[in-house]
């Protein structure tokens, strides 16, 4: 049994890799009473701001196919770096690779045991607009050299990876645009066979008009294309039989009217059948085997009685369905492969008071990277060899916090003014009675997202200062089914905002929050909600903090960055509110009474820095109380430690001035 053992090592502070025979070692007894007492004191004491500003030790961690190496984005000396390392790494000898400036990493994946593929995106000036540009790079484990791929594809998007090998070779299939001009043939992405080590490329399929995406089967044969025409927002599915290059349209959808195309993620060899996530007759999203040529359903491959399927996890060679991601807010992943499912059960039994998530697997599914954490601790990264039963700690996610248990969080439910039940996460400061507390409501970004019982460094930082924190999953949030998401349509700035305010009123009615000591804070869409909150409900909030927020809604919360789906996105956003200007904080400054703090990075490629600067100038002109912290090198996610420090310091100073916790 590894349960007692893991319970004892879950929050150790040592940074050295340690291998533990998980099924044979028992839980060690406490060595002395004084040690137990000091642990308790460490849990209760307040931590310095620097502990929360520390970058995660690693993110996007991926295990190599042979299970001997890992790669990821590491926090090193206050900045993020790309790392490829053996499992028994020596921090003094590992080589870090810089992330190119003005870019953000969207994905890291192994191509074979020696090479990783990095997908990046950024904003660049094109004529009088700023466009999102996507690119891919290969990085060799042995040399550390970057190789830019699809170099001859100079269009907006040249990073669509549609197939990766499973035999150890270094060639992938990727699609990319060769032009930014829609009247040129190269505008429509072609498919290329690309060597990730040398960068050599060979075209295997010429682009077709209006086809913006391609897909392949497990053997690397291009089998489908997705066409889209933004003039009428229609999409079509093109399909080719196994071994054929003759594509024909087999399905159509009007995306503007919220229809959707069902796209195969797996092709059954020797047939026209594909597996796809689609709604069944009852409207539940399931995995269906479907005859693509005839349009007929064959059988239901997988169905969850309580949740919709939203994504799948396939084996390394894409021949086997390993697991499914569900739309449940917790326990949102179910392993279907018996071997991996058994490993998850062993880990769950061990981590009885924590969440154990398998984040990456070797090709034989016996070696795994596991993140174990709780809402009140950032957690640890482990390497687990299921065949041997060995569990080895790689690192703490945040070594400054280590094994300390911070503020406890729990789910709460309250009723919105129209009777809709809203769920949120409530975090209460340690050592204080949950009564008449200074209070901060912290709406999430997105808005198509949700908060759950997982570690949130902002919520924990605020609770560490002494505030109770509510993170409401207002209507329009994900995690509660598609019907709940659609309840947000037409309600941006209206009922979506009321759900946030109703959460505050609930906390006041429960006696948790002091009604005279409430502030609102958020980032991205949450930053918009913070600004709009003090305009829509000016007497409810004592102050507001908007981080990378949107002050003036327009086509989207930010520009589309030259998206080929601009008209579709505009139509989708128009469904969210009938009048952008009527619910934009920039045009409601006369209603604002509370002081406002704006924080924004100049390298934000998600929400333009100008959103905050315009709000600041308008607030100053109107004689309103406003502070603006503009960070020269910060991006949307504050991936530099110096920027996180500046962010948290500005929050702390602002709150101590306008809503002190004591």
TrEMBL record:
Peptidase S9 prolyl oligopeptidase catalytic domain boundaries: 455-657
Pfam families per UniProt: Peptidase_S9 (PF00326)
UniProt KW keywords: Aminopeptidase, Hydrolase, Protease
GO molecular function, one term: serine-type endopeptidase activity
A biological process term (GO) from this entry: proteolysis
Highest taxon above the source species: Bacteria
Gene3D superfamilies: alpha/beta hydrolase (3.40.50.1820)
Disordered as annotated region, ranges: 21-41
Name of the protein in question: Dipeptidyl aminopeptidase/acylaminoacyl peptidase
